Amino acid sequence: MPELLSAASADAYVDALRGTVDRVATRFRTTTQPFSGASREHLQALVDAVDLDGPGCGTPAALREVDELFAQHAVWFHDPAYTAHLNCPVALPAVAAEAVLAAVNPSVDTYDQSTVGTLMERRLVAWTAGRVGFVAGGGVFTSGGTQSNLQALLVAREHALATRPGAVLADLVVLATASSHFSVQRSARLLGLAPDAVRLVPVDERGRMRPDALAIALRHVERDGRHPMAVVATAGTTDRGCVDPLAAVADACDAADVWLHVDAAYGCGLLVSRTCRHLLDGVERARSVTVDFHKAFFQPVSSSALLVRHAADLRLVAHHNDYLNPAGEDEPNQVDVSLQTTRRFDALKLWATLRALGPDRLGEMVDATISLAAAVHDVVDADPDLRLLSPTDLSTVLFRYQPAGLDDARADALVGRVRRVLFDSGRALVARTTLDGRPCLKLTLLNPATTVDDVRGVLDLVRQTAAALLEGEELLRQDEAVAR
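Request: output the structure for the sequence above.
Response:
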C-alpha cells in the first residue's frame, strides 16, 4: 500500500519530507513577524472552505495545503517579537529527532513496543533526577506540567492515605500559593478531594511562599482535624518567574512530615545553569518534582517529566493487565509508572539535544534568557512612560504603560487593548495578566537569540500603540464636545 510508510514507499517518503522541509525552511527564512495578522474570521473561512469529505488530493497537494493554511498563519516562537507565553524556540537536533519519532512511531508503554527507547528514557530520567539531587530517584516522561502535577498529587494522595491513620479523602489538604499553577486546583478536583482542599499560603512581596506562614498553615490543618497531603512549592511562577525559598519550605515540610512537591516546569532550566543553579537549592529535599523540557530545554512540545526522590513511590499507583504488563513480568514496562498507556518516545528529542549540544551549552542558553530579562528590567525601569511592576528570578517582565498624569483606571483599560492591537497586527505578541488586582502586560523571554534591542522594538510598539489609543480617545471626546 503506497499510502503507508514502508520499504515500498521509502522513496515517496523522501520526496514528501524533502518538499515539506524546503517549504518550512522558506518560512523561517522569510518570516518577518511572529504572526500573519490574519483575522479570526478570515482564518475560519479558510478552514471551513476545505472539504474533508471529498476525494483525496494526493500527498504533494495536501502538504502544500498544510504550508498555505497552517504554516503561513502559524505563531512563530523563534521571532524576537514573540514575547508572550512560555514557548521557546526549539533546538535543531530535537526537530530532527521528531522526524525519526514520527516515522518509526514507537510507544514507550511497554518494552516490547519500544525496546531501546525505554532504556533511553529511563537513562534520561536518571540523568535529570541526578541533576535534581535524587540519588535513587525515578520518574517518567509526561505530556506536560499539568499531567506531572496531577500524577505527583495522586502519588502524594496515596501516600497520605497509607501513612496517616484514619485519613479519608475529605480530610486531605494541599497547601500552595496564589502564584501556584492552576493545575494544582484542577488536580485536587480530579482526585476527589474536598472543595476546600487547597489552602493558599501567604506570599512575600515578590509572590514567593513564606516559610513561616507555611509552618503556621500546617499547624492550622492539624488543628482543624484535617491531614496535610502535600505542599506545592513553585520554582518559576508563571507570571513573575520567581522561585519559592525551597530549602526553608522543605524545613517546614520535614517538621510536619508532609510530602513536598516542587513544580519546576518553568524553572527546570536552572538544573543546567552555570550562574543561577543556587536558586534551586533545597529541591533535592522534595519528594517529587515537575520539569518541562519544552519550556526551558528548547524542546518541541511535548517533552516533560515527573521525577520522584524514591523510585518506588510511583508504584503506589501501578496497575497491571494480563494483555499488556502482567504482574511479576521481568520487563521494564513504563506503563507501570505512567498515567498514559500509548505514549510517544518524546525523550528521544532531549537525548539528541544533550548529545549534540551538551548540558553546559544548554545552561549558557538558559542563562542568556535570564540575563536578557535583567537587562530589559533596567530598560523598563528607566523609561518614563513605562512602569516596572515586579522583579523576577527567571525571564519574565511585568510592566504597564503609564506615563506621568495617566491615572490607574485609564492605564488599566489600556492593557488589554494594547495587547489586542499588537496581536491583530501580527507585529508583536505580548501577554497580559493581573498583579495585585491590576492588569499588566507581560513579556516572557525564552529566546536566547533575542537581544535587548529586539525587546526595545517591542516596547516601542507598546508605547506607540498605547499613545495612539489615548490620542483616539481624546479626539473622540473632542468630537463629542463639539456635537453637544
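Residues 23 and 68 are 10 Å apart (CA to CA).
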